[in-house]
Write a structure and sequence with these properties.
Layout (H helix, E strand, L loop, with lengths): L3 H26 L3 H14 L4 E9 L3 E11 L2 E14 L7 E14 L23 E14 L1 H4 L3 E12 L3 E7 L3
Parallel strand pairs: 4-5
Antiparallel strand pairs: 1-2, 2-3, 3-4, 5-6, 6-7
Length: about 180
């Protein structure tokens, strides 16, 4: 038993230290200019160019900011977001909860609706399940939300603030305020 104890302690230490070291290394890497540039490039690659992020900043993973986000489809960019920030609690995901303290943007412009994507595989069942059981958005602020006329028939500009929650996949509550 005395020979087994050091081996068990070493195994237990490795099971704790190795994952913790990986998390710390990733956290440090994404908080450098090169790491942020790599993350933005990887997002563009994974989304096959439909999402392009410029100048990531903040303190990954709890506070993420981007000077610009562009979302495109086969016809080009249809959504542009400037000066976006996300403050959230990533550890809440361990409890299947998405807890967003603040989601803000200086401006959001929706120039048109996206072109529907062609499904690659036929769905086998209807509906979908979110990987989280609860979503809490404590503060939403968009200084200027511009929706172009192709979207709703006439152009509109709004100032949007609010908060919302979704739980149990049964209901959603979005509480907007301060409309322009």
């Amino acid at each position: 038993m005395r020979r087994l104890r050091p081996w068990l302690l070493s195994l237990l230490g490795a099971l704790i230290i190795v994952p913790l070291g990986i998390v710390l290394a990733v956290g440090i890497a994404f908080n450098t200019g090169a790491g942020r540039h790599w993350a933005a490039a990887k997002i563009t690659a994974i989304t096959q160019g439909t999402v392009r992020i410029s100048r990531l900043s903040g303190h990954f993973p709890a506070y993420i900011a981007a000077s610009g986000i562009k979302i495109a489809d086969s016809k080009g960019v249809y959504l542009t977001i400037n000066q976006a920030t996300l403050r959230w609690n990533p550890l809440a995901l361990l409890h299947r909860k998405l807890s967003i303290a603040a989601l803000t943007a200086q401006s959001v412009a929706l120039s048109r609706l996206p072109v529907p994507a062609k499904p690659k595989v036929k769905p086998t069942k209807s509906g979908f399940n979110l990987p989280v059981a609860q979503i809490d958005l404590h503060h939403l602020a968009i200084n200027t939300l511009t929706i172009a006329s192709p979207v709703i028939g006439h152009a509109i500009t709004l100032h949007l603030t609010g908060h919302g929650s979704l739980s149990g996949h049964r209901h959603a509550a979005i509480n907007p305020s301060n409309r322009r």
